[in-house]
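Appendix B. One record, verbatim.
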Amino acid sequence: MILQFLRRELAPGVAALEINGNIHCGPECARLEKEVDTLLKDKFACVVFDLKGVTHMDSAAIGSIVRCHAKLKSAGGALRLAGVQPMIAHSLQLTKVDRIVSVYPGVSEAAQNFAPSSSANPA
């Protein structure tokens, strides 16, 4: 299945990126990171990856998630994961990425109290 992205604005500066397909090393990882670059360019620093449509993710994809997290954090935002399938959740636990990037059952839970830090948007 071809990797597909659907972006939704949840609040000012907060977006959900629904991901469908499998994420493997190579072009899919590059596309994921490019999507985050575009979100940042469009002033979305707080992002929820909705992974309910992702059934497989390799170690390179987990590395991409960590890089996306770092990009968003350095921009004053953060990354959260939602709807993670059991096998992917297990991989996130084994690699301890779930300690770096918060995992939630759904997008609505992940989006609660999620706004860009005030230091990123000075008054």
